[in-house]
Each structure stands twice: as structure tokens, then as C-alpha cells.
């Protein structure tokens, strides 16, 4: 029986655990924050992520608690249209806790869960140690020696009460407004709330100072932005530095393998990080199921490295264009 330690029970770690046959793999998941506190912000799931969910037998349970994504529009801060279009068929919006709940329910009962942070991954005894521990991965730090890096941008985001139609009647599910070195986005959500996010160059300030800055800075942006800002509840706001994983040429090193943000954390501007994390988890499970361990890891590297690095690079380009819009 192959033993596998998975560090991190987020999107990638749970997708991997859901895809491993408990008769062939002894799996242990280590999660530092099993009681999740989340605002209920939404992920866009694109068709390739749905295909991975389908392979795990989870596409329908996800669709049941998600909402179809329809279209995207990008405009300037004065409302002039820059681009947009219809979302591809089988694109969905789902709250992170709902996605994690579906993945968690699919985890075989034999998987052992350990609550608490792993400080040193080299002390774990698994034949394979999977770093599914996000952008600040201790696995990457221990085996690759490279920490995540700041992009110089930050994101303020949250949810407000009310469906998207109350803020932007008849408009697409996602709207972004670019200009004045910043962007503001509004997207549909489920459960009667609407998602919003703002991004700007990073400066040192508290969350409430950044929120006050944003309320002033975006005051001239189009009406839907004003409607959202009027309803913002400071208790339902998150502030993050936007971090990226430095370019890695390999996701496998000795008995360590990286999945999700640990391998390729990217700017959120293409809404793809969780999708790539899902595909990583499902692909690694498939490779481990189909091949002996050494071949499986080579195959995982071959299937996932190029694609995920391309999306990471493209997301960085979109961030730079958006935040440099005049
Ligand atoms: C502003 C913003 C908006 C985004 N919007 C989208 C979007 O629309 N669509 C999309 O696809 N993606 C989006 N993303 C990206 C998405 O959130 C991530 O890419 C995704 O969560 C990565 O999944 P993961 O499993 O790799 O990491 P995570 O989901 O971060 O999970 C890592 C897990 O590891 C645990 N952990 C960490 N360290 C340890 C340790 N030492 N010991 C034990 N456990 C540990 C953590 O508690 C966590 O549960 C967005 C990100 C941001 C910042």
C-alpha cells in the first residue's frame, strides 16, 4: 500500500484525496484550519475544471450548488466598453465553502485527517508528500527553498447583500472597470449576495484604511460600482497582498510533489487559480491510479507543468495591463 501525506485540505488537496482508491493508497490529510471561516466569495469554474470534476464523479453535485456563468464585460472607469463576451458553456459560479463541502463529502472514509499545521514536511513518513498548502507552502519552502513573492498589487474583496440584478440589471455575470491604476469588479454569487473586488498597487495600511481609500478612489466609477460600495459591510471585507509562486521548472522533487497554488499561485485576474488547483488534484489522482509511483510523478509533471505555467504567466500579464490602464 502506498502511503501519501497531503499537506493542505483546500481545493487541490481535497480533489486529490477524493480521487484516490482507499484500497490502494493510505492517505493522511493535514489541515491547519479545519474550521473554515469564509465570507462566501465566489469562484468562477471554467469547463476544463468541470471535466476534472466529472472524472471525480462530482460535476453534478457541484452544478447543484452553483449558478451558471453567462457573460463578461470589461469597461473603462468611465463606462466605455473595452471587451467581453459570452462565457463558454458549462461555466459556473460557486462559493468556496460549497465547493470544499462537495469535495470533502467525496473523500473516502478511510482517509485520516490530522488537524494542525505541519511545521516541517520532511518529518512526514509518507512514500509521497503532497504540498497542497497554498501560496505560502511550507512544502515548497522545505524542498525547493523558494517562498511565494509579492506582485506589488493587493486585492480588497467581499460580498454585499442582494442579487447582482439589484446592482447591474440585465448585465453580464462579471463586470470589471479598469482605470486610474486600479480595477473594480462585480460578479454574481449564489445565496442572494453579490461579489465585489478591487485591486490596486500595494500600500501599507489597515483594512479599514484601504476600504476608506477605495470608497474615495472609486467614487467616480460607473453607477453599479457606487451601488455596491454603498452596501459594503466592513465586517465582510478581506484584504490580501496578491502573491505569486516564482517560476518552477519542476513540480516533483524526490518524494515531494506540489499541486495548486503551492506549485503555481497566480494573479486572480483570469479567475483560474482554483480551476487549476482542481485539475492538478484530479490529474495527480489519475496518474497515481494508472502508473507505478515514479512513472505517475513524471506523467503528472508532463501533463500539468506547461499548461499551469502558461495560465500563471497570462494572469500576470492581465494584471499588469489592468492596473496600468490610464
Ligand atoms: C482575490 C482572489 C480572487 C480569486 N478568484 C478566483 C476565481 O474566481 N476563480 C478561481 O479559479 N480562483 C480564484 N482565486 C484563486 C484561488 O483562491 C486559489 O487558486 C485556490 O484556492 C488554490 O487552491 P489550493 O488548494 O492550491 O490552495 P488553498 O485553497 O489556499 O488551500 C491550501 C490549504 O492548505 C492549508 N495549509 C497551508 N499551510 C499549511 C500547513 N503548514 N499545514 C497544514 N495545512 C496548511 C490551508 O489552511 C488551506 O486550507 C482567487 C484568489 C484570490 C486571492
From TrEMBL:
The entry's keywords: Monooxygenase, Oxidoreductase
Native source species: Kocuria soli
Database matches in Pfam families: FAD_binding_3
Domain of life: Bacteria
Domain FAD-binding: residue ranges: 120-290
Record GO terms (molecular function): FAD binding; monooxygenase activity
InterPro entries per record: FAD-bd, FAD-dep_Monooxygenase_BioMet, FAD/NAD-bd_sf
UniProt-recorded name of the protein: FAD-binding monooxygenase
